[in-house]
Amino acid sequence: MMNTIPERLTALRAAMAQAGCDAYIMPSSDPHSSEYAPAHYTAWEYFSGFPCENSTFVVTAQEAALWVDGRFFGAADAALAGTGVASMHMGVKGVPTVNEWLTEKLAAGKVLGYTAETMPVTQCRSLHELCDKLGAKLADLPLVDQVWTEDRPALPTSNAWLLNPMYAGKTPTEKLAELRSKLTELGCTAMLVTKLDSVAWLLNLRAADVDNTPYALAFCYVDQNSAVLFTDTARLSADALAQLEQAGVKTAAYNGMPAYLAEGTTAQTVLVDPSSLNAALDNALRGNQVYTVVEGADPIALMKAVKNETELACTRAAHLVDGAAMVRFQIELEQRLAAGETLRETDIDTILHKYRGSAEKFIVESFPTIAAWGSNAAMMHYAPQVGADAAITGNGYLLVDSGATYYDGTTDITRTFAVGPVTEEEKLAYTRVLRCHIDIAMAVWREGATGGELDMLARQPLWRHMLDYRCGTGHGVSHVGAVHEGPQSLRPHNGIVFVPGMVITDEPGIYEEGHMGIRIENELVCVEAGESEYGKFLRFEPLTFVPIDLSCVLVDELTREEKQWLNNYHAQVLAKLRPLLNEGEAAWLAAKCAAI
Amino acid sequence: MMNTIPERLTALRAAMAQAGCDAYIMPSSDPHSSEYAPAHYTAWEYFSGFPCENSTFVVTAQEAALWVDGRFFGAADAALAGTGVASMHMGVKGVPTVNEWLTEKLAAGKVLGYTAETMPVTQCRSLHELCDKLGAKLADLPLVDQVWTEDRPALPTSNAWLLNPMYAGKTPTEKLAELRSKLTELGCTAMLVTKLDSVAWLLNLRAADVDNTPYALAFCYVDQNSAVLFTDTARLSADALAQLEQAGVKTAAYNGMPAYLAEGTTAQTVLVDPSSLNAALDNALRGNQVYTVVEGADPIALMKAVKNETELACTRAAHLVDGAAMVRFQIELEQRLAAGETLRETDIDTILHKYRGSAEKFIVESFPTIAAWGSNAAMMHYAPQVGADAAITGNGYLLVDSGATYYDGTTDITRTFAVGPVTEEEKLAYTRVLRCHIDIAMAVWREGATGGELDMLARQPLWRHMLDYRCGTGHGVSHVGAVHEGPQSLRPHNGIVFVPGMVITDEPGIYEEGHMGIRIENELVCVEAGESEYGKFLRFEPLTFVPIDLSCVLVDELTREEKQWLNNYHAQVLAKLRPLLNEGEAAWLAAKCAAI
Asked: How far apart are the C-alpha atoms of A104 and A108, rounded to whole Å?
């Protein structure tokens, strides 16, 4: 049995010794370089004992070190103390990077082991360079698979289905045709579709392999004549199999792609996106002379980011259902707090789930609810834990960032509520964040503007006071999929041009350590504003319709145009949600939506 | 004698026939790819009969065609009708480009002639490619020099001097050291400094070779041990020669650089900027094996754009003197119009020159004054001509865009004045332009923002109404030099990061064809705004202090912050200019600067 970290490390080191391996490296990655890896692939967590994203774990015969980013410094230090695993603070001056550390540990003739399937090709190349420089050897050694067996979570086997074209707007046949035409444009004849988001979009494939994200672990090979979906085929519904067959898509086992590539006999110019390619697939591809490899950005990302009319109509409907749930949540929250009940942060998710989960098309929350009271909200990635969460008592702000995926859309919304009286200073902070939000929401621009250019508008109300938030203003949202999607984003220097159909969150904030966090988030969709002699103009339109707490707005701080936007928004919230609410709920909403 | 265009073209065609040349091409360029060429180099104007910038003239045995941009369509059509020269509208669908036209005229074995000295290397390469494709031959044939002799303007011989370090802030020695260190950073050992702005900055060299711009026609060669200035050395003052010698700079004839390069015997890695390199220099450089040529952006552009403390202090002083002249001009304008006098557009420059020209440090107007009444102001590049200019009668807006170069700085300012009562609609347009101006002027940003990102702020007050101006919001201004400088600019997609010391104009506008033009322009300098836990913040500070006509501002359209900025600006205008004015002028100014 391997219940303790020392036991696990001992077993790993024994395997390393047997394989002649001096150091073993585990990046926090699955075979697709996903943002969140399924449990089966979380070897760095299993062997280090500390769960985190964006990390790397390295083990030698004597030492072990886990690199963690700023979000995890404190927690990792506490968890790793005394385990023999060093907590390495990434980006901190004086702390060596993974490669710098390896330079100290490796030497000529030494062997650095890794698992190619979960090694991003870009990191693999950097390690190759390092080993070449040191005279060391980089070896694909499946030691994780060898050591981590009996207590390892299985690969996910959730039911997989194809999203109905009534929600997706296009069939796999149509999407494959679009991709093939795009590949021709790019001078390629084939593509390895390796990012889960892209496979999901291309074939309308959905499942529940990844927490909070309705995707299936899968790869897809596409050329001008054929397409092969690599996934656990057993859990594909008969209907899904029939639809795939109709689209000319063959199916094969999830791990079957390297063998498939090895067997290829037709010359192909194959596009791969290094940002989601693992080293095993890269080896397989480059090992077969029939392929000419072209590296470039996954073209599906942009195709997926621009929603079609059906996707937008469905998303709008999903947001109204989600909005009604948010209204019911707020009513219950107010009533229970008014009744003197002490609610805790984790109760928020329970209440939200009650209302969202009862919706007919509900699938799953789109991410773990962030319900943060007072100073907890200053931590941007705070996730309350049952038993360790704060009680909502006293006065201050309650930040609630939540969302769900329905069969017709994915939502992401943040509201910050004043609980009890808040100070003038707190109201000013809230009002400034609201101004940032509105300044994006009411932006109009001549077509051609980028996310980086638009981001400038969001921050002026804070920057003028030398305040800021240490993140983008907003991210894309997938349609019935991952809550984060690119390539568009509202963030300094983002160079993606906004086009009609792109969805983006608008979520500026103020995070004051030890005091409070304020964030106001709607999803917006880019639409045409009209045309004049100067060209075509674009703007955003809200997808989210949920009242914004007006009790903490300093009305005089808003410009006339901002006030107009706010009153117009609340009039729309009322008009759009009223049909979904009962009389009492509607009356509550009408009061919240009164013009200021 | 060659007084007519047909006579000139006949002479050119005779020379072409003799040289075996089937087509001859003249770009609108001098040897430095300058924005404005000295008269000596305006062959395309001499042979086509039409003066314009940004143009190309091509002559064959039977045909001749001049390519002109949108600004000149009407005028070129009128001037060229019946001369045998076709007026080609660049960028218009169906009109062939120069290369497309040449493809029709040339064939295998044909010869296309050009003058290498005035041919930008980039255009030369494009022509080489074209000729290679057609099997034609591109030949450096000095036919312009051969045909255009007796009535050709001489090369400029204006007195050249070195700008005193009390105005420049740095000596040539210091600047050469900076450049050499920058070249090392770029992996180069030498550079051909070919842009007039760059030579002027590097050696503090000034003259009057170019209209409205105090530059000398000159090249400079710099390596780690030596520097050579190529210019008409006879007109260099003794003091200038002494200073250059002290800085280790040798001098040589203006046209001596090709020979100098041919004689080089030391291996050098030479940086050249193709955007200001002519084909003759490129040939000379590549004809000598000791040189390794590196093409890249001229590093002096950025060094020059970031003004030093002395330059800024001098510029601030120059702007106050310029501001006092503007105040006196406005007083005279108001008085004469009030007295019932009919002034014409060209009178504006006369009045302005009277006041600016009497300043002790005045050198020259920094560009021809744009004084545009009513609908004339809708033409962004309107230049009034004596005898053909409008009388300022009736009601409307008078746009005045002017500036000067003084020994301590260069200015560029636009004010738009209401003459007589203007309509509410006209006031709204003026107010919107003012908002655009202020929104840039009061911007604050975390360091790292680009000109493209900041430009977004300027246009919101217009874009929200689907209005726009078809140009950048602002350009850099040289210190005692050209009124346009890069690489920074306020313009969509400009990627240059603003840093303290950069000077930029802020000149949004509304141009309504047949009706009016409104522009409000100050020069601003980028300065530090302060530092907080979020980083370093930057902002702009006005360099221009001249009242903005408040009689046409709809105060309620401004935000509270914009109104504050405006009142604060006028308080500064009054405080800064009052010491330079007499009692009557000061009283006038105080009234103009009253808070709204």
From this structure: 12
B340's torsion region: left (phi>0), alpha (psi -120 to 50) or beta? left
On whether the CB atoms of residues B314 and B409 are closer than 8 A, the answer is yes
End-to-end Cα spacing for chain B: 65
Start-to-end CA distance of chain A, whole Å, equals 65
- Beta strands, E only, B367-484: 370-373, 396-402, 404-406, 409-410, 413-419, 444-446, 474-476
Instruction: Compute the distance between CA of residue A18 and CA of residue B122 in angstroms, rounded to an integer.
Output: 62
The rounded radius of gyration (Å) of the Cα atoms in chain A is 25
Tokens of A439: 């300044």
- Specify the pLDDT at position A229: 98
The string of pLDDT tens digits covering residues B537-565 is 999 999 999 999 999 999 999 999 999 99
CA distance A494 to A487: 9
Residues 6+ apart with CB under 8 A from A402: A348, A349, A352, A365, A367, A369, A370, A371, A413, A414
What is the Cα–Cα distance from A68 to A49, expressed in whole angstroms? 13
Segment (H or E) for B182: helix B172-185
Burial annotation B180-189 (CB, 10 A radius, 16+ → b, else e): bebbeeeebb
The whole-angstrom separation of Cα A154 and Cα B329 is: 84
Q: Which residue is listed with tokens 């006339």?
A: A560
Q: Is residue B313 scored above 70 in pLDDT?
A: yes
Name residue A596's amino acid.
I
Residue B333 has pLDDT above 90, yes or no: yes
For CA atoms A174, A177, A179, A181, the dihedral sign is negative
A446 in contact with B at a CB cutoff of 8 Å?
yes
Please choose, from the candidates A321, A313, A314, the residue with its C-alpha nearest in 3D space to the C-alpha of residue A581: A321
| Complete DSSP assignment for B58-82 | EEESS-EEEEE-GGGHHHHHHHHTT
Supply φ then ψ for residue B27, to 5 degrees: -80, 160
pLDDT in tens, A523-568: 999 999 999 999 999 999 999 999 999 999 999 999 999 999 999 9
Q: How many CB atoms lie within 10 A of CB A164?
A: 14
Cβ–Cβ under 8 Å, residues A593 and A577: no
B530 touches chain A (CB under 8 A): yes
Q: Which of A455, A466, A560 sits opposite B534 (nearest CB)?
A: A466
ipTM for the predicted complex: 0.92
Residues B297, B304 contacting (CB under 8 angstroms): no
Interface touch B454/A456, C-beta < 8 Å: yes
Give B413-429 pLDDT, tens digit per residue.
Answer: 999 999 999 999 999 99
Which pairing describes strands B409-410 and B404-406: parallel, antiparallel, or unpaired? antiparallel
Cα–Cα dist A91/B106, whole Å = 61
* Count, residues in chain B: 596
Contact A444 B455 (CB under 8 A): no
Q: CA of B366, closest CA in chain A: separation in Å?
A: 30
The verdict on A464 touching B (C-beta cutoff 8 Å) is yes
Before A500, cis peptide (omega within 30)?
no
Give residue A1's pLDDT.
Answer: 66
**Is some CB atom of chain B closer than 8 A to the CB atom of A459?**
yes
For residue A104, pLDDT beyond 70: yes
Rounded CA-CA distance B553/A195 in Å is 55
User: Cα distance from B541 to chain A (closest Cα, Å)?
Assistant: 14
Contact call for residues B190 and B221 (beta carbons, < 8 A): yes
Q: How many CB atoms within 10 Å of residue B398?
A: 25
DSSP B366: S
Phi-psi region of A212 (alpha: psi -120 to 50; beta: other; left: phi over 0): left
Q: Taking CB atoms and an 8 Å cutoff, what residues of chain A touch B498?
A: none
